[in-house]
Amino acid sequence: MGQSTYSGVPGILRPFKEYIEKWALPSGSEIVFYGVPGTCTPFVELLCFAIRSLPVTCIFVPYTHEEKAHKLALKTDVGFQAIENYAPKNPAVVVIMGGLAMPNMPVTADDVAVVLKKWKGAGTIGVCFMHMFEKAGWLDKVHFDMLIDADISVSVTSE
Fold it and tell me: What is the pTM of this model?
């Protein structure tokens, strides 16, 4: 597997979009994001925005609770937002967000492996920050066709 280095938010979004475009998915194909409510959802919304020109259905699943999933849709002058309950039926691509691997989350790598086995044949993408999947030991149990691992650098100035 090749590795490339990018920077900034476009460095997260462009490779994601390119990967999804390579699938040449038919209209209505499901891209299903599994993540932590509130923590992962802003990043999921950004990832959906990056593929807004594609005829796919984006779905957010809180943790691994598919019965609580929501369809995401583009709202004018806002961006992607959850609009209605919508359980995944046949994902073409499954995206696992790194927030799930953070300490004290109610999800394990084994739980995610079960999800990926259920959707066997779907592409798998991991999106995390600060090597979270590696630090949590998930890379030994969960296979990603593509892993986006970004670093966050913060500088705060105040008076």
Answer: 0.94
